[in-house]
Specification:
Bound molecules: heme C
Strand order of the largest sheet: 1-2
Radius of gyration: 19 Å
Order of helices and strands: HHHEHEHH
């Protein structure tokens, strides 16, 4: 390898490393809409006493990622269609165990159902994607499916798992899709809180070939 090629290679490695670092950095949340009334990390995580720190009553929420919010008890429903190969499974109703992949959708719904923390997001707001309390609402039945297996064998229109994870998207547990597959709650560089840019539908085509 000649010197300039080696330099380009080193630069490329450094850029990938920087990207990975930015993805994992939590402080990028500060100053975004997720830095709720300048509470920083405490908008979502409690160093002590579960959700009681934000006016809740259930200290047990702190057993899951030191969660500082109340938990949803809503039923959201699931997306389905004749061309779906995998099956989306209900995310809500009961609190997941700390080991269950649906956690990575359930936590978002602490606020994005517009019911559990209605002072932050009202049920009728566009941001209340779970919207179970809104009149005429379709819950998660009219949203991109979540809490289903990413299975490129069953659906040959999907890229291999390695393509998805190498690009910086997340599959949870045994390759399930959750809100956190596409969104990075701590980083709004690729608005709106996307793990990778969706310019030219790059996010969509990372999974759908
Ligand atoms: C708006 C809510 C929210 C805020 C604010 C927030 N987090 Fe998080 N945090 C989450 C969610 C949701 C997860 C689960 C991660 C996922 O979706 O993959 C998480 C996961 C984590 C984790 C464990 C997983 C990992 O990636 O290491 C740590 C550590 C963490 N957050 C630290 C922080 C710190 C430090 C801050 C403040 C600088 C912060 N968080 C602010 C919601 C939040
Ligand atoms: C503590 C409450 C809370 C949690 C937990 C939370 N969010 Fe949010 N989120 C908000 C608020 C508040 C806004 C701003 C809504 C508004 O302005 O109407 C927001 C906005 C957003 C936006 C839109 C940003 C924009 O600029 O339009 C996205 C996308 C988003 N959140 C995704 C997520 C995802 C995914 C999770 C879980 C991984 C999550 N949020 C967890 C409170 C939360
Ligand atoms: C398959 C990828 C994907 C998944 C899974 C996903 N989102 Fe999104 N989300 C997006 C994209 C892309 C946008 C930007 C849409 C746009 O620009 O019109 C978005 C936009 C949003 C917004 C901004 C308001 C809006 O409706 O445009 C919120 C809030 C949000 N997502 C929350 C969530 C929550 C909560 C979940 C899980 C229940 C979730 N998302 C799951 C890709 C996803
Ligand atoms: C993390 C991977 C991932 C990303 C990113 C992603 N999808 Fe999906 N999407 C899936 C999976 C997995 C399914 C379920 C496929 C199946 O089982 O048939 C699905 C299902 C769908 C369906 C329903 C298909 C049906 O048969 O009813 C549509 C439409 C869709 N996605 C569009 C999009 C769009 C548009 C984007 C970009 C905003 C996107 N997806 C981003 C993984 C992803």
């Amino acid at each position: 390898m000649n010197k300039s090629r080696a330099a380009i290679l080193i630069l490329a490695i450094a850029m990938v490393a920087t990207l990975a670092f930015a993805q994992n950095q939590k402080s990028t949340v500060i100053g975004t809409v997720h830095d709720i009334t300048s509470n920083g990390c405490k908008s979502c995580h409690a160093p002590h006493n579960g959700s009681v720190a934000t006016g809740g009553t259930d200290q047990s929420t702190g057993q899951i990622l030191l969660w500082d919010r109340g938990f949803t008890t809503q039923t959201f429903g699931t997306y389905d269609s004749p061309t779906m190969d995998s099956t989306a499974v209900e995310v809500g109703v009961t609190t997941p165990l700390a080991t269950q992949p649906r956690l990575y959708s359930f936590l978002c719904l602490s606020c994005h159902d517009g019911v559990t923390s209605p002072t932050l997001i009202a049920a009728g707001d566009i941001h209340a994607v779970g919207e179970p309390g809104s009149t005429g609402s379709y819950g998660l039945t009219n949203d991109h499916p979540i809490n289903m297996t990413y299975d490129p064998v069953a659906d040959t229109g999907l890229n291999p798992v390695a393509t998805v994870t190498t690009a910086g998207l997340m599959l949870y547990g045994t390759d399930t899709v959750q809100c956190g597959s596409c969104h990075n709650v701590h980083n709004n560089t690729n608005t709106p809180f996307l793990r990778i840019s969706n310019v030219n539908s790059a996010l969509c085509t990372t999974c759908h070939l």
